[in-house]
Design a protein that fits this description.
This protein has 4 helices and 6 strands; from the N terminus they run E-E-E-E-E-E-H-H-H-H. It is globular and about 45 Å long. A hairpin with a 5-residue loop joins strand 5 and strand 6 (about 50-60). The strands form 2 sheets. It has a 3-stranded antiparallel sheet, covered by helices on one side. It has a 3-stranded antiparallel sheet with strand order 4-5-6, covered by helices on one side. The protein is of the alpha+beta class. The chain has one domain (about 5-110): PH-domain like, CATH 2.30.29.
């Protein structure tokens, strides 16, 4: 895990973790991505010293980070294609708290043309 508390910013291009040791992950520069747990986004990449590096970021936004990275740079990722990136009861929980959402996994796949 990235050690420490900080602020995560997610865009269609990257994840930025504002912390004492900042982390900026451009989706297209990543070698691999995984949703290691519902709240843990894991990725590997070649760092500026040429070494393969693996980083885990624990955040309630891990599923979103995974989906954004997959749609942008890993559109054939099995977890994206089988809709396994959302927690099993995500849409039901949204509805229970008065925030119904359209089928998020289906909409994500439609955006990449599958």
């Amino acid at each position: 895990m990235v050690d420490g508390i900080g602020e995560v910013t997610l865009t269609l291009q990257r994840l930025h973790f504002a912390h004492a040791a900042e982390l900026d992950l451009d989706w297209r520069a990543l070698s691999s991505i995984e949703l290691a747990a519902p709240d843990v986004f894991q990725t590997s990449f070649i760092d500026t010293r040429g070494s393969q590096t693996t980083v885990r970021v624990q955040t309630p936004w891990a599923s979103l980070a995974f989906a954004l990275a997959a749609i942008t740079a890993f559109p054939a990722h099995p977890r994206l294609l089988n809709r396994g990136w959302l927690p099993p009861d995500f849409e039901q929980r949204c509805a229970r708290v008065g925030r119904p959402c359209r089928p998020a996994a289906h909409l994500a796949l439609r955006s990449i043309g599958t």
